[in-house]
Design goal:
Blueprint (H helix, E strand, L loop, with lengths): L19 H27 L4 H7 L4 H19 L4 H22 L17 E7 L7 H11 L3 E5 L3 H9 L2 H4 L2 E5 L7 E5 L7 E2 L7 E5 L2 E6 L7 H18 L3 E5 L7 H8 L3 E2 H4 L26 E5 L3 E9 L8 E8 L1
Parallel strand pairs: 1-2, 7-8
Antiparallel strand pairs: 1-12, 2-4, 3-4, 5-6, 6-7, 8-10, 9-10, 11-12
Helix pairs in contact: 1-2, 1-3, 3-4, 5-6
Keywords: Membrane, Transmembrane, Transmembrane helix
Protein name: Endonuclease/exonuclease/phosphatase domain-containing protein
GO molecular function, one term: catalytic activity
Length: 339
């Protein structure tokens, strides 16, 4: 007699899904990364006139980190789960596209062509320092000038007292020529140089900005207002941009209260005024906030608002930052040479 077949063992159930708590934590982390990432990408694309959105653009490079983490997390989730896989893969593609966009924006600061100087061209060392209403260490500024062999020093927020301290530190021994003016608060801007300086022309900006000749070069020493006043910020940058273009400036140096991602800086780039650090592929080189001072004392230097811009008459040989005690900006030093 034929024995009845034994009942088949039940097919193993699909692997248990993650717990509700794990799913909740995962999506909270994703949301916590996606919200600031979307804000950074959106603010960079829109170029808003809203002051908060303008300031948010300063942090655009952080989008690389945020979107990179999102691509990793969403890819891991898509690989681990088989349900709704097309939707999960779509989320990875969107995050990957945003990451690619941010890499395109930040990439020129790390890689790109850098035209060489003319054979035998004499290099010029340029230094910029915002003095935080004159609270910077004047002796350290003078020592940095000597150590780095600075030829042209541009100072923002220079006060009468700071200038007196700088003179007491012997700055005139190495940089005997000067132009510009001091102010008891934040508006003062001065240029000190071992090269001859021409008569300064005061530009119509909120704080003092000047055009002058430095040796055979035309320099704009500038300090546009911060984007807490968006209309004034844009107006100041328009004045600088138009004067630089009209005067065929060779150098634009100063605390520009804008990063390479701001549209005002991209417009200068479009006119041929390239950031010396970007040309030399120096990377981010943030300059603010420094020394845990100013309006954001909890942050290390994370954004680059101090710049040396060069026209196509000059080559960039490299840039570096130097910490100066007492100020919320790192000093920026650039070496340039005629092309």
């Amino acid at each position: 007699m034929t024995r009845a077949a034994a009942p088949r063992a039940a097919a193993p159930r699909a692997a248990a899904t993650s717990s509700p708590l794990a799913r909740t934590v995962f999506w909270l982390v994703v949301a916590g990364l996606a919200l600031p990432a979307l804000l950074l990408t959106g603010s960079r694309i829109v170029d808003s006139d809203n002051g908060s959105m303008i300031r948010l653009v300063s942090f655009t490079p952080l989008g690389v980190v945020l979107w990179g983490l999102l691509v990793f997390l969403l890819s891991f989730r898509a690989a681990a789960r088989t349900d709704r896989r097309p939707l999960r893969i779509g989320a990875v593609v969107v995050a990957g596209g945003a990451l690619f966009l941010h890499l395109l924006w930040v990439g020129p600061q790390f890689a790109g062509a850098n035209p060489p100087p003319a054979p035998g061209a004499e290099p010029i060392t340029v230094m910029n320092s915002n003095l935080f209403e004159g609270h910077a260490d004047a002796a350290q500024v003078a020592e940095t000038v000597r150590r780095e062999g600075v030829d042209v020093l541009v100072l923002e927020e220079i006060t009468p007292d700071f200038l007196a301290d700088l003179d007491a530190a012997g700055i005139a021994d190495v940089l005997p020529n000067r132009a510009g003016g001091t102010d008891r608060f934040v508006a003062g801007t001065m240029v000190l140089s071992d090269l001859p300086l021409g008569e300064p022309v005061l530009l119509d900006t909120e704080f003092q900005s000047y055009r002058m000749s430095v040796g055979d070069l035309t320099l704009l020493a500038v300090h546009p207002t911060a984007p807490v006043l968006p209309d004034a910020w844009r107006a100041d940058h328009a004045v600088i941009r138009e004067d630089a273009d009209r005067s065929h400036a060779d150098l634009i140096v100063g605390d520009m209260n804008a990063t390479p991602d701001h549209d005002v800086m991209r417009r200068l780039d479009g006119l041929g005024f390239r950031d010396a650090g970007e040309l030399a592929n120096e990377g981010q080189q943030p300059t603010w906030p420094a020394n845990h001072l100013g309006v954001a004392p909890f942050l290390p230097p994370v954004i680059r608002i101090d710049h040396v811009l060069v026209a196509d008459t000059l080559a960039s040989l490299g840039t570096r930052t130097v910490e100066i005690e007492g100020t919320d900006h790192l000093a920026l030093i650039a070496e340039v040479a005629p092309r």
